[in-house]
Design a protein that fits this description.
six-stranded antiparallel sheet; mainly beta; 20 strands; 292 residues; seven-stranded mixed barrel; 3 helices
Length: 292
């Protein structure tokens, strides 16, 4: 077996392989998937010299630990957390050289929810439909990490410019989501639409990679019939029978039969990936930009 590989020492609560996802397959019923906090994933790839599309590890809450079989450069970003190499403190948000056989431990998030670990060469599991991403809804891509698993790495990239500081957004104390109302806002009473864009919600512990669930005022429908299943997009805010909005994230289904009251701007979704349960949520109605 090649020495360009990582052994998983501690898999963590939920650690998956993610890249830029597999958009363009919704007509086959395949979600886009990919890293929930795309800017953080792109940053760690830049820090180690990988191309933007290289696969990284996405951790959830309590990180993970891996042992490379060869000397590699790594970077950890996303949710701030302690990082150690063989028990010695190492940098977070900066390139770190890890010797062959040493244990890199990505600790529990101090704030935020999801961390991103890039390794020079990228995680080289077999791609499916052009992506190495784990999709929790469809089951495509590699399984979530388990203790003892071995992950192949791609070739070491060419030397690259090093950086001392890599600024990045802090996990949100309040999640503000800009939303364009529609296409099914008419299925709700005017009072419900007003409550959706003026009342406070919070992130539910039931949230996952498929959707950010909320707790707060239930939205009352003006129409009580059944809606035929229709296509769903990233950021769609679907309202199930309990009336609490659900924001669709990367592993969302490609169709759905509950009305969509609005769609969140894509630029606001990385913050949703880092919003821990209980984080206040505000939906702010915005006008559709011209030409969009």
């Amino acid at each position: 077996m090649t020495d360009r590989a990582l052994s998983v020492v501690r898999a963590g609560a939920l650690t998956t392989v993610q890249d830029q996802g597999r958009p363009g397959h919704a007509h086959l019923g395949v979600p886009r998937s990919g890293a929930l906090d795309a800017p953080a994933a792109a940053l760690v790839n830049r820090l180690v010299g990988n191309p933007p599309g290289a696969a990284v590890l996405e951790t959830t809450v309590n990180g993970c630990a891996v042992r490379p079989r060869c000397t590699v450069t790594v970077a950890v970003a996303g949710a701030p957390c302690p990082v150690t190499v063989d028990g010695r403190p190492a940098a977070w948000g900066a390139p770190v050289r890890v010797p062959a056989g040493a244990v890199l431990d990505v600790g529990s998030a101090v704030s935020g929810l999801r961390g991103y670990l890039a390794v020079s060469g990228g995680i080289a599991v077999e791609p499916v439909l052009g992506s190495r991403s784990t999709d929790l809804l469809s089951g495509l891509g590699p399984e979530p990490l388990t203790n003892g698993a071995v992950l192949p790495l791609g070739p070491e990239p060419a030397p690259h410019a090093r950086v001392d500081v890599a600024p990045q957004a802090a996990p949100p104390a309040e999640l503000v989501l800009r939303v364009t109302l529609g296409p099914r806002d008419e299925w709700f009473t005017p009072e419900a639409v007003r409550a959706f864009t003026t009342r406070a919600y919070s992130v539910s512990p039931a949230s996952n990679r498929i959707g950010l669930r909320t707790e707060g005022p239930a939205l009352e429908r003006s129409l009580t019939g059944e809606l035929a299943s229709e296509g769903m997009v990233l950021g769609a805010v679907q309202v199930p029978p309990d009336g609490r909005p659900v924001v669709f994230l990367a592993d969302h289904p490609t169709t759905g039969g509950y009305p969509v009251i609005g769609v969140v701007r894509t630029a606001d979704l990385p913050a949703a990936a880092q919003a821990v349960p209980g984080t206040p949520v505000r939906f702010v109605a915005v006008r559709r930009r011209r030409g969009r």
